[in-house]
Specification:
Shape: globular
Number of helices: 26
Radius of gyration: 24 Å
Number of domains: 1
C-alpha cells in the first residue's frame, strides 16, 4: 500500500489550523492532566461495580459493603440504588480496562490503589466526555448565532471556568448528564430551525438517556421543551403555528421519552419488583428497619428554607462562590436584556427555571447538597448551563456593556478559572474533614487556598486535622496529603515501582506542556482572526 506522507502532514497542519480541533485537543489534554487515576467518588466506584457485574459473575454490590451501601431487592439480593445510565457508559471501558489489568506486567501491582482498572476508566471516559462536550457546546452556540471565536470562548469557559472542571477529575454523573442535556438543547433547537426530524430524534434520545442516568433529569427534559416554546413565543410566532410545532414535537418526543422511561421502570422492577416506586422509597424502608430512630419522613427531613437557601447563600455550598460566572450572567442579563436575541432569552429563562427547580426539589432531602462534593453537586450541572454562556455574551455585547462591566467580567472569568483549578489540587473530602474540627460555617474556597499555601510550604499542621481524623482511615490520610494528580498520588502511595512513577511524572508534565502550547496556538489563531475581521471592518 502506497503511503502518502505529505498528505498525512497536510492533514495534521489543517487540524492545527482549525480552532475546533485545537479545542478538542485542549479538552482532552486538560482532562488528562486533571486525573488522579481514581474515580473520585464512592458513588462512581459502586457504579463501576454494577458495570462489572453486567458482564462478569460478580454481584452489583459486594456483600462486605452492606449496610453502608446497598439495599435488598428481589430474592433478598443486594442491589445498588442508582440508575443504569452511568454503568452503561462505563461498561465498554471497564471491559477493556479489566483485560489490561489482567496482563502479567501488572501482576505485582494488583490490589493496590489507584487500580489499573480505575486509572484506565477515569482517563478514557473523562477525556472522551470533555472532547464531546466541547464540540456540542460550540455547535449550540453557533446555532445561537455566536461567531466561531465567541463559541470557542464559551466552550472553554464551560470546560475550565465552571465546576465542570472539578467533575472532570471527580467522575460523578454530573458531566455525563450535562453532555446529554447539551445534546438535547442543541439538536432539538436545530429541529426547531430546520425541521429535520432526525435532529429532533437525536435530541430526544439524549434526553431519554438522561432519564436512565438519574430520574430527576426529567427536569432537564422539561427545560428543553420550555426553551423551544419560549423561543417561538419570544420571536412572535403565531399561536396556531406554535401548536402545530408542538404536535410535530410530541409525535417524536413523547414515544421516545416513554421508551426510555419504560426501560428505567423495567430496571426498577428487575431489582425491586415494582414499576411505580423509586429507589428512594425502598432505600427509606430498609434504613428505617436498620435504624428505627430515623424520623418518619426520612430522607425528606431538611426544612425547606434551609435546603433552598443553602445552595444560594451558605459559604460552604453557594453556587455563586463555586461558579462565579453565574454572577457575570446575572450582570450581563441586567445590563443587556433588551439587546439579547429571543433564543438567548429563552435559553436563560429555561436554564434559570431548571436551576430553581433542582434547588427546590432537593431542598428537603437530608443531604440537600450531596455532602461529599465540591459545592452542591445536585444543582451544579444546571448552574454550569446558566453560567458558561456569560463569556460569549460578554464578548458579543462588549460595546453596549461598558468598560467597567467588561473589566469586571474578565476579572470574574479569571477568578472562576483559578477557583476551578484550586478544586483539583486536593481530594475533595479534605475540607469536609477539617470542618469536623473547625466547625460550621466554613468558607470552603478560602480554606482550599489556605490549604494549598500550607501544603506548598510544608505546614500541614496548619490544616487543623485532629489525630483521630488522621488515623481513623489511613488511606484517606494518605490521599489528602498529596497533590491530587496521578503521578503525585502514585509516589505518595509507594506501591508502584519508582520507574513507573517517574515515567508517569514525565508524561504528566509533557501533557501539561502540550496543553499550554495548544492554548497558545488557539490564542494566536483567535487573535489573527480578530485582526482580519478588524481590517475588513
Amino acid at each position: 500500500m502506497h503511503y502518502d506522507e505529505s498528505a498525512m502532514f497536510s492533514k495534521i497542519k489543517r487540524c492545527c489550523s482549525d480552532p475546533r480541533w485545537l479545542l478538542v485537543i485542549i479538552g482532552c489534554l486538560g482532562a488528562f492532566v486533571a486525573q488522579s487515576g481514581e474515580l473520585g467518588s464512592a458513588d462512581t466506584m459502586h457504579r463501576l461495580q454494577v458495570a462489572h457485574s453486567l458482564w462478569t459473575s460478580e454481584p452489583p454490590v459486594l456483600p462486605q459493603e452492606y449496610p453502608e451501601f446497598g439495599i435488598h431487592g428481589r430474592g433478598g439480593k443486594l442491589y445498588d440504588w442508582y440508575g443504569i445510565g452511568q454503568p452503561l457508559l462505563l461498561l465498554p471501558f471497564d471491559i477493556v480496562a479489566t483485560g489490561i489489568e489482567r496482563l502479567p506486567i501488572f501482576s505485582d501491582y494488583s490490589g493496590n490503589d489507584p487500580s489499573v482498572r480505575s486509572i484506565i476508566v477515569s482517563y478514557a471516559v473523562n477525556m472522551l466526555l470533555n472532547a464531546l462536550t466541547a464540540l456540542i457546546c460550540v455547535r449550540l452556540l453557533r446555532l445561537f448565532k455566536f461567531t466561531l471565536i465567541e463559541a470557542i470562548v464559551g466552550a472553554l469557559a464551560l470546560l475550565f471556568c465552571t465546576t465542570h472542571l472539578h467533575y472532570t477529575q471527580n467522575m460523578m454523573e454530573n458531566n455525563y448528564i450535562q453532555f446529554l442535556t447539551l445534546v438535547g438543547f442543541t439538536y432539538q433547537y436545530e429541529w426547531l430551525r430546520t425541521g429535520l426530524r432526525r435532529s429532533l430524534l437525536i435530541g430526544c434520545v439524549a434526553s431519554g438517556l438522561n432519564l436512565l442516568t438519574r430520574l430527576t433529569t426529567g427536569l432537564d427534559l422539561i427545560a428543553v421543551g420550555t426553551f423551544l416554546m419560549l423561543a417561538l413565543l419570544l420571536e412572535g410566532v403565531r399561536r396556531r403555528e406554535v401548536w402545530n410545532r408542538f404536535l410535530a414535537y410530541a409525535k417524536i418526543a413523547l414515544p421516545t421519552y416513554a421508551a426510555f422511561l419504560l426501560l428505567d421502570r423495567l430496571y426498577q422492577f428487575y431489582r425491586f419488583g415494582s414499576f411505580f416506586n423509586t429507589y428512594v422509597s425502598v432505600f427509606a424502608k430498609e434504613y428505617h428497619q436498620l435504624d428505627p430512630t430515623l424520623p418518619p419522613g426520612w430522607p425528606w427531613t431538611t426544612p425547606f428554607h434551609v435546603g433552598f437557601l443553602g445552595p444560594l447563600i451558605t459559604p460552604e455550598k453557594s453556587i455563586f462562590l463555586f461558579d462565579p460566572l453565574l454572577v457575570l450572567t446575572v450582570l450581563v442579563v441586567i445590563r443587556a436584556w433588551k439587546r439579547l436575541t429571543p433564543e438567548i432569552k429563552a435559553y436563560l429563562v429555561a436554564t434559570a427555571g431548571l436551576l430553581l427547580a433542582y434547588i427546590s426539589f432537593y431542598a428537603r432531602y437530608f443531604e440537600w447538597s450531596g455532602n461529599f462534593a465540591w459545592g452542591d453537586r445536585y444543582v451544579s450541572t444546571s448552574a454550569q448551563l446558566m453560567a458558561f454562556i456569560s463569556a460569549p455574551l460578554l464578548i458579543r455585547h462588549r460595546d453596549q456593556l461598558g468598560e467597567l462591566l467588561w473589566r469586571t467580567g474578565l476579572a470574574l472569568i479569571a477568578i472562576s478559572g483559578i477557583i476551578q483549578v484550586a478544586s483539583l489540587t486536593f481530594w475533595l473530602p479534605l475540607e469536609i474533614y477539617q470542618m469536623e474540627t473547625l466547625g460550621h460555617p466554613t468558607f470552603v474556597i478560602a480554606l482550599r487556598f489556605k490549604n494549598i499555601v500550607a501544603f506548598a510550604l510544608g505546614r500541614m499542621d496548619a490544616w487543623g486535622l485532629t489525630n483521630d481524623a488522621m488515623t481513623e482511615d489511613p488511606w484517606d490520610y494518605v490521599h489528602i496529603t498529596t497533590w491530587n494528580f496521578l503521578p503525585f498520588l502514585l509516589r505518595r502511595v509507594g506501591a508502584a515501582p519508582s520507574w513507573v512513577v517517574e515515567t508517569a511524572m514525565a508524561v504528566w508534565y509533557a501533557a501539561l506542556a502540550g496543553f499550554l502550547v495548544t492554548c497558545w496556538r488557539l490564542q494566536c489563531l483567535v487573535r489573527r482572526s480578530g485582526l482580519r475581521r478588524a481590517a475588513k471592518a
